[in-house]
Design a protein that fits this description.
Layout: H1 14-22, E1 33-43, H2 58-69, E2 72-76, E3 79-84, E4 91-94, E5 100-103, H3 110-128, E6 133-136, H4 155-167, H5 171-177, E7 180-185, H6 190-210, E8 216-217, E9 220-221, H7 227-232, E10 240-241, H8 253-262, E11 267-270, E12 273-276, H9 282-286, H10 300-307, E13 311-312, E14 314-316, E15 320-326, H11 330-344, H12 347-357, H13 362-375, E16 380-381, E17 384-385, H14 386-404, H15 419-427, H16 431-440, H17 450-453
Parallel strand pairs: 10-13
Antiparallel strand pairs: 1-5, 1-6, 1-7, 2-3, 3-4, 4-5, 7-15, 8-9, 11-12, 14-15, 16-17
Helix pairs in contact: 1-8, 2-3, 3-11, 6-11, 6-12, 6-13, 6-14, 11-14, 12-14
């Protein structure tokens, strides 16, 4: 999330929270695609991480990007922590360990998303190269310890850093050493939201396997293909996971509101100050009886900010966020929205995807999610491998994009962006499998070559 919400309108009832979600319903012709990706900055001279301060630090990088782009700076306590494009809607932000994130503008086609990505990477290189900085496209930092990883000066991250060890063993790794790519997609109605949420939750482990790209920690294989995904299994299970209740009768905006109300809060922001209320109930804030801030009333901004601190595999805001994929090379970043748009934005493909997953039980879905980080394409559900399911779902994505028929300047439709995923299926190997083979072969048991082979 590039910047906290600012709407000071008071809210006093559960019904208003439900209405907040309902505003997200859009006509199909207004559907857009918002792609976000993170990447690790590093110093090219010695492959070390990049601190915020210093003449060649993250602050200098952001200030250089502001001068180049003319975007509005996002400030906190006198420091620049991001940039916002007031015209197009895109933004640049910092994750806790300095991961540099582009939150893309809402666009109509995957081609536009790819053009936005390539323009962003060219702009970043223009500013970063004189600073001696590069960027790494993996799902987890492969070399640095947690102690070596820098800390970005954002108030919400300080609160999270203190709270995370109380609720799980891997929260700090999640914050400081992982990197993801996700896509945000629209829905036309509550019913459309529910069916897209169910299909994407069930298939999120399939995407995790296809995009697995985090097999190294602190210079060695970590035993997983997607360590990023494994880390989420013990980060904070009160706010993460597969949402099994989303498949129950009666699922809708109200049910998600009830879930979100029961997820412990992190903070309440007033002015520029983050009040640490970690573990408190939003229900108490809604009722005006939050112990840490007696008499303080909930606002629309409080609700939107609280929702941004909930981390299930698929997150509902006024759109749906697909959250299961490791970050990766440029082509993989374009492939993620292609995969989900092809499945979710075409009714025939969406219906066919539901036929694949509708009989899976909650236990089966959870076991699949638990197995995929280690086993990848070899994990199984109902006597089928993830590779087999992925092949079928990828065919649905292909069909859905073909029916969308959105050509680029060369007459090619959006299916061209699925090519990296077709290679995964054809080769029966994830990018993580290939990285491990390089590590045991030409890389001679060093992860350092990743900083050149997988640099942007």
């Amino acid at each position: 999330m590039a910047r906290d919400q600012l709407d000071p309108t008071f809210i006093t009832s559960r019904e208003e929270l439900v209405s907040w979600f309902e505003v997200g319903c859009k006509p199909v012709e207004s559907f857009r695609i918002g792609t976000e990706h993170e990447k690790f900055p590093f110093r090219r001279a010695d492959l070390s991480p990049v601190a915020y301060e210093g003449p060649n630090g993250i602050r200098a990088l952001l200030e250089g990007m502001q001068m180049l782009l003319g975007w509005e700076p996002i400030m906190e306590a006198g420091r620049i922590i991001g940039l916002f494009d007031v015209t197009g809607g895109g933004a640049i932000s910092l994750e806790p360990g300095g991961q540099f994130e582009l939150s893309g503008a809402p666009l109509e086609t995957i081609h536009q998303t790819c053009s936005e990505l390539h323009a962003h990477l060219a702009q970043v290189r223009q500013v970063a190269e004189p600073l001696g900085l590069g960027f790494l496209g993996l799902g987890m930092s492969p070399k640095w310890t947690l102690a070596e990883t820098p800390v970005m000066p954002k108030g919400r991250y300080g609160i999270m850093t203190r709270y995370m060890p109380k609720v799980g063993s891997r929260g700090l790794d999640m914050m400081y050493r992982t990197s993801t790519v996700q896509v945000n997609l629209d829905f036309s109605s509550e019913a459309d939201m529910v069916r897209k949420l169910r299909v994407s939750l069930a298939l999120q482990p399939i995407a995790t396997a296809l995009f697995a790209n985090s097999p190294f920690t602190e210079g060695r294989p970590n035993g997983f293909l997607s360590a990023r995904s494994e880390i989420w299994r013990d980060t904070d299970n009160a706010r993460a996971g597969m949402l099994p209740w989303a498949f129950d009768d009666g699922m809708g905006f109200e049910r998600y509101v009830d879930y979100a109300l029961d997820v412990p809060m992190y903070f309440v922001k007033r002015g520029d100050h983050y009040h640490d209320v970690a573990g408190a109930s939003f229900r108490d804030l809604l009722a005006g009886r939050l112990p840490q801030l007696p008499g303080e009333r909930a606002t629309v901004a409080d609700w939107a900010n609280h929702l941004s601190t909930i981390f299930p595999e698929v997150r509902l805001k006024r759109y749906l966020e697909m959250r299961g994929a490791d970050s990766g090379p440029t082509g993989r970043i374009c492939a993620l929205p292609s995969f989900w748009v092809g499945v979710l934005y075409d009714d025939a493909s969406l219906d066919a995807a539901w036929e694949i997953v509708k009989h899976w039980t909650a236990d089966e879905r959870q076991k699949l999610r638990d197995d995929v980080p280690r086993e990848g394409l070899s994990a199984r559900i109902r006597n089928r491998s993830v590779l087999e399911v992925a092949r079928d779902v990828l065919a649905l994505a292909d069909d859905g994009l073909a029916r969308r028929a959105r050509p680029n300047l060369y007459g090619e439709d959006e299916r061209i962006h699925l090519a990296p995923l077709h290679r995964v299926v054809e080769q029966k190997a994830t990018l993580a499998d290939q990285l491990l083979a390089k590590y045991g072969g030409p890389w001679e048991e060093s992860v350092d070559p990743a900083f050149s082979e997988f640099a942007y």
